[in-house]
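Incident log, structure service

09:12 report received: a user says their structure output differs between two submissions of the same chain.
09:20 pulled the input from the user's history:
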Amino acid sequence: MVNLVDAQKPLLHWLVKRAGLREQLVEIEPGTYMNFWAPKETIQSKPTDAKHKKARKPKPPVVLIHGFASEGIITWQFQFGVLLTNYAIYIPDLLFFGKSTSTSLDRSPDYQASCIARGLTKLGVERCDAVGFSYGGMVAFKLAEEYPDLIRSLVISGSVITMTDSINEASLKRLGASSSNELLMPETVSRLKALLSISMHKKLWFPERLYKDFLESMYTSRKERKELLEGLVISNTDANIPVFKQKILLLWGEKDQIFDIDLAKKMKEQLGENCFIYGISNAGHLLHLERPCAYNRAVQRFLAYINSIEDASSN
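09:34 re-ran on a clean worker, output below:
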């Protein structure tokens, strides 16, 4: 029987290609490959690439970093087409999602960030804005912290700077889960339904078969992904709030049950005057899927603001 989730991928890939993106599997290091959807004119870095691109004044690059439930292009299917009008879009599959693989035993967000940074460099990207959702938001924070010359600004949704013991325990207790694995790596339709129920403000109905197909299609590499979750949590004593040079937008679903908006407000206080917060009403954790038009407008406004600052400083 045809998997309904897998069946829609060729159509989505066709639409993405029509929009001007192509898949590129980039070797990060021996044994580690990260898959990117990138502008079709992108060529893996050669000494002349940067000069050639500078002369053509390409669109500002934006990298979209997905969360834990699905690969990049599935996560951002309602965003890439809108953003492509004014931006060069790069959509990576994080390691152990989509076609991205690694023989490395490092499961930390730091390593994911390092792989994205090296992949973008090989694709000729010198500076970009990063948009991160949930797990991808934590990776985006690491990118901004470790590669300030690469990351110009951040848009973060449904995430935290660092997943500490206390944040993890409080979230699991509030959601009635015993572990992150139980919550984010469902093995049955009932658990997948429960995850979607707390992830979305609007209660949508899907046929039973679609849940089964989603489990089969999206939840692959289970061993490695469980290790990613284990590598995510650090002790409270090891946690610190980095000083970010970038402007940061916390773009939140006001009904987010996983990381509620009060947590976002607390983060804004910790991050200081370079951080802004904007709430989207009637949206939960999956705000980019529930209210894509409102989400896209907010992202575009912020990126236009970042562009205006850069234009003013160059004049």
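09:41 both user submissions now match this output. Likely a transient worker issue. Closing.
09:42 reviewer note: The radius of gyration is 19 Å. The longest strand covers residues 21-29.
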